[in-house]
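Bench notes, afternoon.
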Amino acid sequence: MIRSTLNLVLILRNVNCILLAALAAMISAGCGVNPAKLPPAPVQNPLPTPVDNTIPAVDPVDEQAPEPQEQQQAVEPRLFIANLNGPNVTSYVNPSTVNGNIAPDTNLQGAQTQLNQPIDILVNSAGQLLVANVRANSVTTYDDAATANGNLAPDGNVQGAATQLLSPVSLAMNTSEDLLFVANLGGTDDIQVFANTTQASFNGNLAPTRTISSAALNNIFAPGINFGANDDLYVANRGAAQVLVFANASSINGTVEPTRIITSTVFVDIDDVFIDGNDNMFLVDFTGFIYTFRNASTLNGAVEPDLTLQVPPAVALLSIAVDSNDTGYITDAGNDAVYSYDNISSLNGALAPDRTIQGDNTQLRTPSRLFLVE
């Protein structure tokens, strides 16, 4: 099982290899790995209904009880994980406390889900779970992300020729404008933009609102795309060993040139890029490294990382997300694991994870990308 999983994901030795051997119907190249060189795997309450405490007036004075003030429940931190070969989507509440062979709080899986090699996920402003299914060329929607569990049919399924989805591999969202960005692996390596994902109309054979294409998008190769500050869209352009930045991404359309192109001598097998709230840029290298760059919004041209974290148990790192407390979560598709590090923006050198989610109970099956709700 481990060997077959590695054959699906270990793509670093050949830029022309596609991320997954499981996509054989679409991809003819295969990728190999020498197992001898791989390290061993690590092991609401609802608010009470306001009671009308108005005391009947006993004199001519008109006294009214104060209106109850609206209270908001805090959102539970939750980590969503797309498992390519489940195929399933799992989630953990309070993920910074999860360690070991722990069953997920939710596991979306089964024929009715229409999940078909789910590779990326996100949650929109309406609390809906959106899933990119690379083999089905679709984006499926489940109306309540926190309760999406079991063999649950989607509430929406964007799929068909008009969608221009060709092996969709990564998602990013402009939440305030309700715009979904979908990076295609197939075809011309472009990015499709869909509007109104929170509406019931986000369903069926729906054409994108806009298409972003560029000659610089060179074999983006299962890229991670994520937003930084000021509507900057960052793309891990693995085929060219670059990070591309498109400014004002929510308004551009057609063939455009990136506003910035970030290069580095360490960029070899970059698979994901993430910008945290402190303008730190994290780059995931497939072979086991996390590169941290300060002041992401100012980076351009040739740069070197401020910090390099080596993940000792890593086999095939694919993605990263960092929460507001500076805890980083990293998927390892080769080890069927998710690693977490505290204070990740300050880490340098070879360091073991603070916590590892791994084991049969986790239902992790080639974990690809993840998404944090806080």
